Amino acid sequence: MLRIDEKRPIEQLRIMSVYLKGDFQEGLNAALLKVDNEKAKGRIFTYEMLKGLSVRCYNINFKKEFSFRIGGGADAPIYMLYCIEGHYFHRFSEQDEAKRISRGQNVILSARDNDLNVVTLPKDTALKLSVIIIEKPELPEDLNISKSDLESILDDLYLKVRSKGRFRHFGGINSTIDQYVRVLIENERTDVLGRLITRAAVLNTMVAQLDTHEKNIKGELETSPLSNDELERILSSVKNMQLKLHEQHTIQIFSAKTGISPKKLQMGFRFLFGSSFAKFLKKLRLETARELLETTDLHVSQIANDIGIASNSHFSKIFKEVYGFLPRDYRESVINSSSMFEISYRSSASPFLRDSELSALIENADSKNIERDVSGCLVYYENDFFQILEGPKKNVLTVFNEIKNDTRHSNVEVLWKGPRDKRIFPGAGMMLLSDRTIQTGISTGRRLAFDMRTLILDNDFKGMSSRMFWERIRNRIRTTKVA
Question: What sequence ranges are listed for the domain HTH araC/xylS-type (predicted)?
Answer without folding.
Answer: 235-333
